[in-house]
Amino acid sequence: MQNPAPFRPAIKLLTLTMAAAFNAPAALADDKQNKQVVELPRISVIDSSADAITKQPGSISIVDSEQLERIQPLSTEDALRRVPGVHIKGEEETSIIGNVGIRGLSAADYKSLILEDGVPIAPGLFVGNGRYYNPRIQRMEEIEVLKGAAALRYGPNTIGGVINYKTKDPIDGFAIGGRIGTHNYRETTIEAGGATPSGEARAGLMYTYASSDGFQDKDFDMQDFMAKAGMALGDNQWLGAKFAYYKNDANISYRGLFLDAYNAGADYNPAPDDYFYNERTSFDVNHLWEIRPGMSLSTVAYWSQVSRDYWRFAVDNAASTAAGRWVYTNNLAGNNRSFDRIGIDSRLTVENQLFGVKGEAEIGVRIMEEEMHDQRVQATRAAPRSGPIDTDSIDSATSYALFMQNRFDVTDRLSITPGLRIERYEQEREDRRNAANNGDSSNTEYLPGIGATYKLTPAAQLYGSVYKAFSPPLNSQSIVTGVNQQLDAEHSINIEIGVRGSNGGLSYEFTAFQMDFDNQITPAISGGLTNANAGSTLHRGLEAAMEYRWKNGFRLGGNLTWIPTADYQENRGGGILEGNRLPYSPELLANLAVGYGAGPLDVELSWQYVDDQYGDGQNNVAITQTAIWGGLLPSYDVINLTGSYAVNKQFKVFAAVKNLADERYIAGLRQGIYVGPERTFELGARYQF
Length: 689
What we know:
Distance between the termini: 34 Å
Number of helices: 6
Strand content: over 45%
Structural class: mainly beta
Shape: globular
Oligomer: single chain
Low-confidence stretches: 1-34
């Protein structure tokens, strides 16, 4: 994939800035403590101020760099398991495809907004599936998860909340790290960076290469590159830029094991010739302007391009049933999609005094364009990757958003924050093979919300909010055979109330929530349309997170999610009845970790529990021989042991045993059984020069 011509000058400028930073005189290294190194601007879900969390009228979870180093995750989803309310539907150990559910929403769906440095990363928010790209954990320094009314600030698909991956800033110097493990896992990461003598400009790059034969022989070959640079523009403005490139060739498919094969302990790849080719290029430019004390303007312009080529062989169903495993034909289909996005997001923050009450206002605007090109190529084993095209369409969408909120600090203890988001989106479908299927659709959403915080004691703060969230219909839903389906967005009225705080070595957060999710898109039953807004689900539950640290280095922490209600509220047809539970929505999730950290040594033993869950909305209990969608997935628990040792300030070694008890479990169902990864061993090291 080549970079479009308009972006080549920007990339060249970024490269020159990095070169200048790397050539800073080495003799100035001793003066690092005396210079102020510029902080690269970006839009954070939770800012870096000391009271940032207490300002948020919603549930907050942060997986910081210390925790990431301790967990030693192979994927971003591995790290998210430590966040209360989050459920992961595992498809393979490095989570190439995203499967995240929050607060009882199905982990096989996409109703939560995922950002990287404040920028949407899902390939298509309005035009297509958002699960086709999952960022790599190696370049992340922190993960922020925000729920509640404050999520309105960031866009569509915030029904479950907002996940923001924050990438690492450039280091000062050069570092190399690596990891090896079971299934011939190999990973190498190189980091390099530096700053100018004044510290007013800095730049760096990070490159990771990883490959593996894979659990069940699901091999992959991945590379991930990121370059960041930034500089101060005078005393009150800062400019930053980030370029990223990702490529992964993975031997994965939608097909899993047959039931008998799973019960017999089979560990082969059920689709050995299917491949998922994924590539992404992106470029972001951030600008921060401190206009005056108490007033600032943050702006990010972004562009990304994602391609997803999925080559899958057809199966002979009769032969497969007789053989007890998938038997493939010579017919190969390439379900190939490419996504383009360009947008700008700008936010003005102003300290003020309205109606005699001090506070802070935030006003944001966002303009974004998306396009998805969808093609299906019919090929054969004799002529792979080429053949006639029988599907060729382009879906596009333009969206405009305006957000306004004002925090009123009524007293030193009580703050109230009302807000409103207005989102306008226009969708268009062009079928290049049949113009009769062309059409367009548009809609405007008004999303109010209000939240509050109240300081009970120095060690306890109450918070709560009520807000309206939405998830837009995709082009394929809103425009069918050229007919505007007249769909509204799917809506959810979310309510939560909780308490958080800390006292000595104790920190905690407890939240009760309800999501009344209605207007969902279902098959139409009248009016001559294909789709209609008719469905609703109700979600109620509790989240709890707590950690205690003793002065002698021991720590104990964990989280618990209990969702007794995640149910359909009406009969949907096709066996989905009122009262049925949503698929991939366990009632109980638990994580517990005990660790010890003192001096150069840090070790941790963690336990994860996932309750049983249904594989479909029909709530079938029995898993059929071919395990097509339905059945009850039994509960399972996994134990991990991780540890690290800092030999000196520059050199650290680390090791992990994942799934210590070698638990065999069903992670998901989709044209077969997806098996959870078996016990694995990992050993790694990092050295910074």
